[in-house]
Design goal:
By secondary structure, this protein is α/β, with parallel strands linked by helices. The chain has helices spanning about 10-15, 40-45, 60-75, 85-95, 110-120, 135-145, 165-175, 190, 225-240, 245-255, 260-275, 295-300, 320-330, 355-360, 375-390; strands at about 80-85, 105, 130, 150-155, 180-185, 200-205, 220-225, 280-285, 310-315, 345, 365-370. The strands form 2 sheets. Strands 1-7-6-5-4-2-3 form a 7-stranded mixed beta sheet, with helices on both faces. It is globular, with a radius of gyration of 22 Å. The N and C termini lie far apart (about 60 Å).
């Protein structure tokens, strides 16, 4: 079969698969074995051969490998590793980049647990971090020290949806021998491939869009061969955070529909964002797909599309009004995480201090919504009904 292996639709449906290897099964089976055996002891002592490349599940496994091969292609990377959670991938990749005495520059509004891992946990090992707003590339350059070894990016960020200029930051980093890591969970590889802009390695919480059905927790790391081989042999094996094959099977099944799911998230989210932007009870919408987004031009340059997660602020700052607005919603459920079939809503700043709100330039009414697949008309009607009942 001949096909363009950079076509996401063909990667998710066929790439890396050969039914002949498994009795013609159209869906590759779940290999759920902790160890592999060999025809003779010499093959084992030689570390296997072409027919026996697998040793032990904590190191690698065919079911996990299939998801990795597809995801490496989707991210335009040499190779990929699956982890037991997004945080397992993120902390392992971060540890692979630093040693005692090193310094990191990170975007300030990165995923909270990673913020804490860099700031608090790594401090125990003498690693320091400077957090920057990151919407101007100069933020990174100016915070760079002699001992800076890594830039940590997340673009867009997942509460206020601020972007970093991937090309400019990667170019400066390369010239100064600084490794660049990015969390690409929001855009998914369907809408953004940071490696094309010179970023060294890409992380995802596969618990979000890649899995897509709110039924797995998983993480992935994509990058060049040297880096991935090193993390496979060191951090993933030594810390032991590999994904389980059953979860890898669900991840591959989720990937089958990634291109069409992302298209649907985008179409519905754009309609919802435009509706919210024009509603008199809404003060501001944070969504990079809108032309009114302060970095829309950069978004259009480095992304091919927009996903289904956004936030907005109400005019009201009355706590009871904000909570009542949320509680009136019928189709949006309340829970953390995002990227599944179901729409979700959460107040993000209702308990924030005055200083925090001032620093971010937002009110206490920031509401984050994840647009699922219920349909834009249904979700807009739900939001409209609840917005109209806000008194102030
Ligand atoms: C959820 C999330 C993570 C962490 O992923 P887990 O799979 O929950 O460990 C990392 N980054 C972003 C942007 C996330 O939303």
């Amino acid at each position: 079969m001949k096909y363009n292996e950079f076509d996401p639709s063909l990667i998710v449906t066929h790439y890396g698969e050969n039914p002949e290897e498994c009795f013609g099964a159209v869906v590759p089976p779940i290999y759920q074995n902790s160890l592999n055996v060999y025809p003779n002891v010499e093959t084992y002592l030689n570390g296997g051969d072409d027919k026996h490349p697998y040793v032990y599940m904590r190191v690698s496994n065919p079911t996990i490998r299939l998801a990795e091969e597809k995801l490496a292609k989707l991210e335009h990377a040499d190779d990929c590793l699956c982890f037991a959670s997004g945080m397992a991938a993120i902390s392992s990749a971060t540890l692979a980049c630093v040693k005692s005495g090193d310094h990191i520059v990170s975007v300030n509004s990165c995923y909270g647990p990673q913020h804490s891992f860099m700031e608090n946990y790594l401090a125990r090992f003498g690693v320091t971090v400077t957090f920057v707003a990151g919407d101007k590339p100069e933020d990174f350059f100016e915070a760079t020290q002699e001992n800076t070894v890594m830039y940590y990016l997340e673009s867009p960020t997942s509460i206020y949806f601020q972007l970093q200029d991937l090309e400019a930051i990667a170019k400066f980093a390369k010239a100064h021998n600084i490794f660049t890591l990015i969390d690409n969970s929001w855009a998914s590889p369907i809408y953004q491939n940071p490696i094309d802009f010179g970023i060294d390695a890409v992380l995802h919480s596969a618990s979000k869009y890649l899995g897509g059905h709110s039924d797995i927790v998983a993480g992935i790391l994509c990058g060049n061969q040297e880096f991935i081989d090193r993390v496979r042999g060191q951090e993933r094996s030594l810390l032991g955070g590999i994904l389980h094959p059953q979860q890898a099977f669900l991840l591959t099944r989720g990937l089958r529909t990634l291109p069409i799911r992302m298209k649907n998230h985008q179409e519905n989210a754009m309609k919802v964002a435009q509706f919210l932007e024009n509603h008199p009870k809404v003060r501001r919408v944070h969504y990079p797909g809108l032309e009114s987004h302060p970095q829309h031009e950069l978004a259009a340059k480095q992304m091919r599309g927009y996903s289904g997660l956004m936030s907005f602020e109400l005019w009201t700052e009355d706590r009871e009004e904000i909570l009542a607005f949320l509680n009136r919603l019928e189709w949006f459920q309340f829970g953390c995480s995002w990227g599944g079939h179901e729409s979700l809503a959460l107040p993000m700043t209702i308990n924030a201090s005055k200083e925090q709100l001032e620093r971010e330039g937002v009110s206490n009414s920031v509401i984050r919504i994840s647009i699922g697949h219920e349909g834009a008309q249904t979700l807009i009607a739900d939001l409209e009904n609840s917005l109209e009942q806000i008194k102030k």
